[in-house]
Design goal:
Structural class: alpha+beta
Order of helices and strands: HEEEHEEEE
Shape: elongated
Radius of gyration: 24 Å
Number of helices: 2
Number of strands: 7
Largest sheet: 5 strands, mixed
Helix content: 10-25%
Distance between the termini: 37 Å
């Protein structure tokens, strides 16, 4: 099973494959070779932060995506990179695109643009990095345990630091109690 962050990265890369005047869009980490034909884009899934939603039994995840634009120009690499970045922004302008085909729970957020030149004597290649934030929700994976929608009954536990036994009634987390009350 493919991790959700990789599905999101791949959907983002697929969207960018429609950008005009870009020769290739690559997914993941690699070192560009001298033979790669510019302009091209490398899409990566970077850091991810997680916030638990205990009431909804979900976690809200914020994934940082980058689109690194590599350009080669005899005249002005900064202007060439800016043109590709503008084309990427236009590709993301449609309402379908900002949710990456329903994978995101909130619109894709464009956060920053940074240009970095390369003054290599053999080849004038420059990169610009566009950074985006992708928000999505994940339900817990119970890994073979009893699914939450079938749990019913009373759970007794001890409150940390005390000897008190606390009865907790658990029913209908995702649906109605199915009559399997084991109390």
């Amino acid at each position: 099973m493919t991790a959700m962050r990789i599905k999101i990265r791949d959907a983002f890369a697929d969207l960018l494959r429609g950008v005009e005047d870009v020769n290739h869009v690559f997914n993941g980490r690699f070192k560009p070779s001298p033979d790669d034909e510019c302009p091209f884009i490398r899409v990566t899934a970077e850091s991810e932060s997680i916030e638990a939603y205990t009431d909804a039994c979900q976690s809200r995840r914020a994934l940082t995506l980058t689109a690194e634009i590599y350009v080669e120009s005899e005249a002005d690499t900064e202007a060439a990179a800016a043109e590709v970045a503008e084309a990427v922004e236009k590709a993301l302008a449609s309402s379908d695109a900002v949710y990456l085909g329903g994978l995101l729970s909130e619109p894709l957020i464009y956060q920053s643009y940074e240009f970095s030149g390369n003054d290599d004597a053999d080849r004038e290649v420059a990169a610009a990095t566009m950074t985006f934030e992708a928000i999505y929700l994940v339900e817990p994976d119970v890994n073979g345990a009893v699914p939450l929608d079938t749990v019913a009954g009373t759970i007794e536990g001890r409150m940390p630091g005390t000897a008190a036994v606390i009865p907790v009634q658990v029913t209908g987390l995702y649906g109605e109690q199915d009559g399997n009350d084991q109390s």
